[in-house]
Amino acid sequence: MIDLSRFANRRIAVMGLARSGLASVSALLQAGAEVLAWDDNADRRAEAEKLGAAVTNLATADWSGIALAVWSPGIPHSFPVPHPAALAAKAAGVALVCDIELLALANPQARFVGITGTNGKSTTTALVGHILKQAGCMAEIGGNLGMAALTLTPLGADGIYVLELSSYQIELLREARFDVAALLNITPDHLDRHGGFDGYVAAKRHLFDQLPADGTAVIGLDDETTRGVARALGRGILSRGVVGISVSRPVVGGVYVDGSIGGGRLIDARNGSARTILDLAEAPALPGSHNWQNAAAAYTICTALDVPAEAIIAGIRSFPGLAHRQERVAVLDGVTFVNDSKATNAEATGKALACYERIYWIAGGRAKEGGIDALAPQFGRVRHAYLIGESADGFAATLDGKLAYSKCGTLQEALAAAAKDARGTGGVVLLSPAAASFDQFDNFEQRGDRFRDLVKALASDAAATLTGGAA
Fold this sequence. Notes:
Blueprint: E1 11-15, H1 19-30, E2 34-38, H2 42-51, E3 54-55, E4 66-71, H3 84-91, E5 96-97, H4 99-106, E6 111-116, H5 121-134, E7 138-143, E8 159-164, H6 167-170, E9 180-183, H7 191-194, H8 197-205, E10 216-220, H9 224-234, E11 242-246, E12 255-258, E13 265-268, E14 275-279, H10 289-304, H11 309-318, E15 327-332, E16 335-339, H12 346-353, E17 359-364, E18 366-367, E19 382-388, H13 392-399, E20 405-409, H14 411-422, E21 428-431, E22 435-436, H15 444-467
Parallel strand pairs: 1-2, 1-4, 2-3, 4-5, 6-8, 6-9, 7-8, 9-10, 10-11, 11-12, 16-21, 17-19, 17-21, 19-20
Antiparallel strand pairs: 12-13, 13-14, 15-16, 18-22
């Protein structure tokens, strides 16, 4: 566990007791701090009390003598309505920070990479971590992805923390510093939590305030908002350390992907020449232009960390991908089964549909605003749609006269029908729901796990039939 002994004998408030909050409580108590903990959920309060924290309603507590508030990023502190505990802390002049701040303060000799963006940050974070570990570097991956920050392994000067950062986490950073900071893209999201789009952009932009003058900023140039961020940084003291990346245009002095040939060629145009680094067709876990952006970002980040190009290329090629994000589950009888359960809206599903031909598409769940109307340009890639969940009728209305579909109700029924129809076509059975999971599953992970289990059952049945085993 991370050493927080600098907080020994100090009174620290912890607000929010989910995964990262409880990890903060545990680490602070182990360091000898006095911890006042609160969550509006009674069960979570009980967990903190078992650890030894003083359960205290922070909305009505006496904040005098409290040195710091470790704030759960998921709890509003400004917009749309600040939690009463946030108002009390601010009135007392107590700073609100997240666990990322504590991790950085406790490991000043290690190097830090911060990766953010509306989309792609999880894959990029995982890819960078994979490359570093394959190259023999000491690296820990966490933040908004995977393990809570304060449960990561302590690292010294040779270590690198690779952290996925949400806008909620970034706005709670004060003294943390990042050797490399990457902003992939910005599209409207979480607007209620930031008081509008400008506030959301400002939260993302704040990551570069945590970058020292000799740090490296990696910025996607494929949307106007991030281009504006790059222009602003380029006029400042960081100008030499700003590297632009793109999958839609050449970038003089940057890194880009030429998608006109094959699976996309990764090109490094720094140092006065444009060198082809890798044909991304050799990275099967990174299909589509959105994943090309992830690869370009990861390559640029790792070069900034002085990882040899050959090691980066090998890492990109061997990357297995992330679960539930265009995860190739199996190839059965020439048909590829892909789990993209994380695609809970049309924008995410559109990226998946653009990657394949001869698609047998499983879609549906609890519909998001706008449904699947925006996916019409991709319908020509789909042989048949299999609709599940609450949104089946609404999705069917959108598909009427445009695309063959079946209402299947459940994921099991949809997969059975899709697998049968796809047999012998060399096509792709794609779970990319374009909808939330909460009508039939607890979360998108459970939905994806169910898909994976069902595909594995199909594979087992096929093997049993081939070997003469029991059906």
